[in-house]
Automatic annotation (TrEMBL):
The gene is metW. It comes from the Bacteria. This is Methionine biosynthesis protein MetW. Pfam families: MetW. Residues 206-238 are annotated as: Disordered.
């Protein structure tokens, strides 16, 4: 039996059947194929590498060759139920723009990021004085595609700045079952090796009620009631 990647298994739980899904940076299409088979989603991929695009097409998947940093702008607003970005945000040149675009074109976004605040990362820096290589960050510094690493606290702060709501979060570690966490809890910034977030836009607040105005003498001026509209009288017939 083929072992499903743990972040894929969590995404499979989140996505509802027959949903419209965009997988940004879909690679060779493993996640899209899984969602299509298990949840019968209407899926589309966006992938930069031509070899990966060819692999997706060979799987019978719908995929567009494009750059997630620039080409999300071309998708119509609310075209999807879910936009997925799995372990890719840290490789984007404009993470803020990408997150904004994900939640423009989809009702919810599923985003997973490696946590640079994990205790193994901290220990490697403290004890060795070198850039860490861990299960979530396996490449050496000179060949890694990661250019915008962050901690859980950093990511939560960015969501707050962008007006995004965190609807759910799970911590992922190689070889261990995923567990639901509160990403704002300080301990999770140490414990979670990778975190998977379910995001949506915060509802726009209702406009405040009009406040009574004061005149120059400090007296409250209440809004004047509108004058009643006079009823129109019917004309007599001769």
């Amino acid at each position: 039996m083929t072992r499903i990647r743990e972040d894929f298994a969590e995404i499979l739980k989140l996505v509802r059947p027959s949903a419209r899904v965009l997988d940004v940076g879909c690679g060779e299409g493993e996640l899209l194929e899984l969602l299509t088979r298990e949840k019968q989603v209407d899926g589309q991929g966006l992938e930069l590498g031509p070899e990966n695009v060819a692999a997706c097409v060979a799987r019978g998947l719908s995929v567009v060759q494009g750059d997630g940093d620039r080409d999300l702008d071309h998708f119509p607003t609310r075209a999807f139920d879910y936009a997925i970005l799995s372990k890719t945000l840290q490789q984007m040149r404009e993470p803020r723009h990408v997150l904004n675009e994900l939640l423009r074109i989809a009702d919810q976004a599923v985003v997973s990021v490696p946590n640079f605040g994990h205790w193994r990362v901290r220990w490697a820096l403290l004890s060795q004085g070198r850039m860490p290589e861990t299960g979530a960050l396996p490449e050496p510094w000179w060949s890694t595609p990661n250019i915008h690493l962050c901690t859980l606290r950093d990511f939560v702060d960015l969501c707050d700045q962008l007006g995004l709501r965190i609807d759910g979060c799970a911590a992922l570690s190689d070889g261990r079952p995923a567990r639901e966490i509160d990403p704002r809890a300080p301990i999770e910034n140490w414990r979670a090796e990778t975190a998977l977030f379910l995001l949506s836009r915060k509802a726009e607040p209702a406009p405040p009620a009009a406040m009574p105005q004061q005149n120059l003498f400090g007296e409250v001026e209440l809004p004047k009631p509108e004058a009643p509209v006079p009823k129109r009288r019917g004309t007599r017939k001769a």
